[in-house]
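Bug #77: duplicate submission created two jobs. Keeping one. Sequence:
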Amino acid sequence: MQHKTNGFQARREKKKAGIIKAALELFAIHGVKKVTIADIAKKANVSPVTIYNYFGSKDELLKSAIFDFLENALKDYEHVLNSDIPFPEKIERFIFYKDRTLNTFTLEFLKSVFEENSEMRAQILDWYARHATPLLDKLIQQGREERYINPDISTEAIWFYINLFRDTVNRLEVYSGYDKKTLSDITRLFYWGLLEKPSEK
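Kept job's structure:
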């Protein structure tokens, strides 16, 4: 009986993961408003009823899709941070992951999340404070220990720099005013701006 229960649960989770993947792909391309539950059901090869049974509403599915993406991204960052690769290469990997996020989502999707859904925006910022901030703090400490970050620069100054950058890129007009290449360059400037003469290491 236990084996049957475990098998059912595994199939259920696999189906939910497929729905989340399909939803995120459609939301990212078309924005949230233009995508229907029927569209997602067709792409995920399930019935609309199944989606409602699992998630209750499109808003809840959107939330699940976004936080699934964030949790997977966090695992990538943590894997790099805890690896033995040189610190400058860690920075390059972080830049690559940021670029990947930029290339995943359209402006329409970002508007749906950050401009038109204040509750979702607040939840994402809360998630960032609880998960991404400690990750960056660990990155800074590693950089200091390996002397890639100038030890004379105070932690308070570094966090002022990080928050200034974060507050700027969180404004939607930044995404609409620049192409992805420029945004990628801004990310590169942000990370390498933390380092002290990396070319001499």
